[in-house]
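tool=predict chain=A
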Amino acid sequence: MGRFVTAGVDGSAESLAAAQWAAREALRRGVPLRLVHAWRWHPHPASSVPAGSTERAAAEQVLSEAVGSVRAAHSGLRIDERLVPGAPVTALVSAAETSQLLVLGSRGLGRLAGFVVGDVSQRVVAHSPCPVVLVRAGETSADEHLPALHGISPDEVSETPYRDVVLGLDTEHPCDELIEFAFGTARGYGAPLHVLHAFRPAPPRASDGTPFPGPELLADRERAVVAALRPWCAKFPEVPVVESVSEERATGALVHAARAASLVVVGRKASSSHLGAVTHALLHHAVCPVAVVPHQ
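tool=predict ok
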């Protein structure tokens, strides 16, 4: 397992939100935070580079501001600073090789609209060897928790219970890496794990051609969910588990569940750079952070 929780920073509001989320996660896991900023030399510096400065100096300033922001909120956290010359995708995928988790920012469109996922983020998610979490601009610690009681002070928000962690489960291909990540995260949060399985079946028929009763099919899927989770419930007995099985599109069900979640967990095949329709849709429409876990 990697030594760090790593966040990519580029000076944007979304990357600073990602750095703060990653800092909280590093504290939960008891590991150092690594902040990575990649930069490339150009013969004609961008307009964002101050007059009389250099691209490297501007890059150092971006990293310094991100480190300062995190240290102001988490003074005791160990931070490893990495200024990397080269393409952002290459730098971040390389950093992921020694990370438990990679955290990236994505511009938010508001609590009901979700993400705008840039090309760099999508490519990193598709190639990272470790789980990647996408965090919206504006995401704060309070968003991870249930609504605070009236009159509670900001420094007491962390004492409020966490929102559910949501896991999208495919009962035909239940992946150990994905399920273990979701259970481990819920345990770290002290939160319930909401396991959601949604399906849109074709008109089912039995072997003799007679219609297969809808309620029986639903019960069959429910049994499959229970069977897939049984060893993990035994391994993580302290994690409360809520199971939901419904006949609807998985994308819609997960996007809806994300509205009340602290994190949504989905997977992608490690052998492919294709994200899949459900993961792709969540990266654009979920309103809470999304974790994409590579699996075999």
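Confidence is low (pLDDT under 50) at residues 108-115. The longest helix spans residues 214-235.
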